[in-house]
Specification:
The chain is α+β, with helices and mostly antiparallel strands. It folds into two domains: 168 residues, no CATH class; 122 residues, 60s Ribosomal Protein L30, Chain: A, CATH 3.30.1330.60. The protein is built from six helices and ten strands.
Length: 330
């Protein structure tokens, strides 16, 4: 009988340990960012990775409702964005303890802290809190998770991160397997690795340009490449420049406006100047290829005045960043 009880006890302990291990498991497909350790005894309950996206990094206290993205100071970034939620399994831990551990780890890893906030700096009124910025994490994880909340933004090389830590208070998280235990620390870690968007636009051939100009009076081109904020053409622009040169040689009477367009990021006057300078760079490069066409090309820039897509998404902004060839009819 005693032997049977021992066997039963062993099975019970084994089953209990197995359940705890399962509860502590990361969600499938998640991983820690390279070079960034997690806090001991935590599991992932949310993981999202986008190869290229836009991210507003808060660098100052919240001044208005979060869905308006208004802070005393912020930084708009574009690049690879990875968002992770970690949940502790130990209610004896506190948000402050976890936050201090991350501070030490980031400092040791060479990260520069750009801003830290806590308490009233993370709120502009009852219910209007920083944690609302992470509402897309498994429903409810940060909904009422503000006790002891702390936030920091940091930078290292071309990477930035946002860290938000709080103690889970209450709420319903779905699915139930992602529900934090009462009082445990919950952590939102967003990593933004700034980089150029991978170019996916297809090269437009001279014949296609001619057809578009004949039918619509203009053609939009995406093969002119510039660094952010720069009007210097990059070498990968050469294929498109060569095709436009072929177009100009094929029709010696063709006169064109070379019109630079930008997205809505930045100030109006700055974008006007940038688009004008980029158009001038294109005209200069084309003139070197076809000197006789110099008098037939007129550069101009309109900034973000003529969007062809919404500037609310990176895909839309990419469509708006272009150079158009517009036929001069008279």
């Amino acid at each position: 009988m005693k032997q049977n009880l021992n066997v039963f006890a062993a099975l019970f302990i084994s089953l209990t340990c197995s359940l705890h291990a399962q509860d502590a498991a990361d969600i499938p497909g998640s991983k820690d960012p390279a070079g960034l350790k997690r806090y001991e005894g935590t599991r992932t309950t949310f993981y999202e990775e986008n190869a290229f996206d836009s991210y507003t990094l808060p660098l100052g206290k919240l001044t208005k409702r979060p869905n308006m993205n208004l802070f005393a100071k912020s930084l708009t970034l574009e690049g690879k964005v990875t968002k992770i939620t970690y949940v502790s399994n130990d209610p004896k831990r506190t948000a402050l303890e976890v936050f201090k551990n991350y501070q030490s780890e980031l400092t040791a890893g060479g990260w520069e802290v750009l801003w830290e906030g806590t308490g009233d700096e993370l709120s502009v009124g009852k219910g209007i809190l920083f944690h609302s910025l992470f509402a897309n994490r498994p429903g409810g994880t940060f909904a009422i998770s503000h006790p002891g909340a702390r936030y920091l933004a940091a930078k290292k090389g071309g990477s930035h991160l946002a860290l938000f830590v709080a103690n889970y208070k209450a709420g319903t998280v779905s699915p139930k397997s992602l529900q934090p235990a009462a009082g445990v620390p919950v952590i939102a870690l967003d990593l933004i690795e700034t980089q150029a968007m991978e170019e996916k636009m297809v090269l437009v051939k001279a014949e296609e340009m001619a057809s578009g100009i004949t039918q619509q009076g203009a053609v939009n081109l995406y093969g002119f490449h510039f660094d952010t904020g720069s009007a210097t053409l990059k070498p990968e622009s050469d294929p498109t420049l060569d095709e436009v040169a072929k177009l100009l040689k094929s029709d010696p009477t063709l006169r064109l406006l070379v019109v630079g367009h930008t997205d809505i990021v930045g100030k109006f006057d700055g974008n006007i100047e940038l688009s004008q300078n980029r158009a001038a760079s294109v005209v200069s490069a084309l003139t070197k290829r076809v000197p006789a066409a110099a008098s037939r090309l007129t550069p101009c820039g309109v900034g973000y005045q003529c969007p062809i897509s919404s500037n609310s998404s990176e895909e839309g902004r990419a469509m708006n960043r272009r150079v158009a060839l517009v036929k001069v009819e008279n």
